[in-house]
Write a structure and sequence with these properties.
Layout (H helix, E strand, L loop, with lengths): L2 H4 L1 E11 L3 H4 L1 H4 E12 L2 E7 H4 L7 E4 L3 E5 L1 E7 L13 H12 L6 H17 L2 E7 L4 H13 L4 E4 L1 E2 L12 H15 L5 E7 L7 H13 L4 E6 L3 H10 L6 H7 L7 E5 L5 H10 L2 E4 L1 H6 L7 H4 L7 E4 L11 H14 L6 H7 L2 H6 L17 E5 L4 H7 L5 H11 L5 E6 L2 E5 L2
Parallel strand pairs: 1-4, 6-7, 7-8, 8-10, 9-10, 10-11, 11-12, 12-13, 13-14
Antiparallel strand pairs: 1-2, 2-3, 5-15, 15-16, 16-17
The structure holds zinc ion (ZN).
InterPro entries: Amidohydro-rel, Guanine_deaminase, Metal-dep_hydrolase_composite, Metal_Hydrolase, Metallo-dep_hydrolases
Protein name: Guanine deaminase
GO cellular component, one term: cytosol
Length: 439
């Protein structure tokens, strides 16, 4: 095969994508499912997607790979995850603030060592591919070298990734703090070095309001104003003790989100992790400002944080952009399939039954919309980047048995999000190139 041929590939099999938001358009109208689908890819971009019989005439010298008993779909997008915490997943027995002090702030000090950061970044991205996650919005640590290590690793895999240096200038150990000025300067240097290098984007990353002084949040807002193409990522309203602490630290602000709004840190491309205990006025500000939230269900269960309010988040009119996320290391898995299963359980505890279509949407196109990347990733359509995964719908003997009793694609999707894990990832394509293949 010559190089030219290698750039033109086609995948045939059952294909799922989303045309629209199922929370608004309804599940059936939003889904685009082809039982015998064909996806044509040229130099990393999708050029056509449709029913095999209808678009097969567009095949020329494409190398065609056929997948049976599988589901070809957009790669998963994890909208909130801490790569340095990969090594501390499953740390026992604390809620947010104690968990940060006892585990996170100990672990993250190791990332002063660039070699350690590079080693863990490599493990993290290897695991992302194994679970079919092709894009993530990633927290590094306070150390600029932790960002260099991550972006170098992502760059070598040609993955579309967002990441940023954590900003913390109080309420953390000395080894993990910067200052308002040094945090600004280091972040600016990283933006100039990495923003829009290949497929990489920078996120200005204050950890959360309690670990930044007002001066630091003000500097972060000024930095975003100067580099408005950057993302902003932080945490909001995860835990009741945290919320009370924010009220103590910022008594002049009307609520937690208002702290960020005051310093110019809300708006399009700002994404807020958790958003579990928001007041109605906070929901309204998220919607009207175009800000997004990350729902982190396995983390919220693990730390006992609370139940995300799907109904309010996606309420019509004024729905908020929502993406699903693992929040590793408080999250208990990097698998977005398992995260969808966790989201279903969180919904059930709040008397809301999240459908399979809506869950898959939140992990693909919905997540891309939350990150304002839906013109590039998250769905399969002409012009989109070909970050695709192939799910094996029969990845364990038990799932194989269960699948014999599935009535249709939505049944099959629900079984996958309830029962499947990394073993279901059969293949991953990054920008049209095979990047992972299960044995
Ligand atoms: Zn987090």
């Amino acid at each position: 095969m010559n190089d030219e041929n290698k750039q033109r590939i086609a995948l045939r099999g059952p294909v799922l994508s989303f045309r629209d938001d199922p929370f608004i358009a309804g599940d059936a109208a939003a889904m685009h499912y082809e039982a015998d689908g064909l996806v044509l890819i040229d130099h990393g971009l999708v050029t056509a997607f449709g029913d095999y019989q209808q678009i097969r005439t567009q095949l020329s010298d494409h190398v065609v790979t056929e997948y049976k008993n599988a589901l070809i779909m957009p790669g998963f997008i994890d909208t909130h995850v801490h790569y340095p915490q990969t090594e501390m997943m499953g740390s026992y027995g604390k809620q947010l603030i104690d968990w940060l002090n006892q585990y996170t702030f100990v672990t993250e000090q190791r990332y002063a060592d660039p070699a350690h950061a590079a080693m863990v970044a490599d493990v993290f991205l290897r695991e992302c591919l194994r679970v079919g996650t092709t894009t993530a919005s990633v927290y590094c640590t306070v150390h600029p070298a932790s960002v260099d290590a991550f972006f170098n690793a992502a760059q070598s895999r040609k993955m579309r990734m967002i990441a940023g240096k954590v900003l913390m200038d109080r309420n953390a150990p000395a080894g993990l703090t910067d200052t308002a000025q040094s945090g600004y300067d280091d972040s600016e240097a990283l933006i100039q070095k990495w923003q829009h290098t290949g497929r990489l984007s920078y996120a200005i990353t204050p950890r959360f309001a309690p670990s930044s002084t007002p001066a630091q949040l003000e500097a972060a807002g000024a930095l975003w104003k100067r580099y408005p193409n950057s993302h902003v990522q932080t945490h909001v309203s995860e835990n009741l003790h945290e919320i009370a602490w924010v009220k103590d630290l910022y008594p002049e602000r009307s609520n937690y989100l208002d702290v960020y709004a005051h310093y110019g840190l809300t708006g399009p491309k700002a994404i807020f992790g958790h958003a579990v205990h928001l007041e109605e006025s906070e929901w309204q500000h998220l919607a009207s400002s175009g800000s997004a939230v990350s729902h982190c269900p396995s983390s919220n269960g693990f730390l006992g944080s609370g139940l995300f309010n799907f109904l309010r988040a996606k309420q019509n009119p004024n729905p908020v952009r929502v993406g699903l996320a693992t929040d590793v290391g408080a999250g208990t898995t990097l698998s977005m399939l398992q995260t969808m299963g966790a989201a279903y359980k969180i919904g059930q505890l709040g008397h809301y039954s999240l459908s399979a279509a809506k869950a898959f949407y939140l992990a693909t196109r919905g997540a891309a919309q939350a990150l304002y990347l839906d013109d590039k990733i998250g769905s399969i359509a002409p012009g989109m980047e070909a970050d695709l995964i192939v799910l094996d719908l029969h990845s364990t003997p038990l799932i194989d048995f269960r699948m014999q009793h599935c009535a249709g694609i939505e049944d099959a999707m629900f079984v996958q999000m309830t029962m499947a894990d990394d073993r279901a990832t059969q293949a991953v394509y990054i920008a049209g190139q095979l990047a992972y293949q299960r044995d």
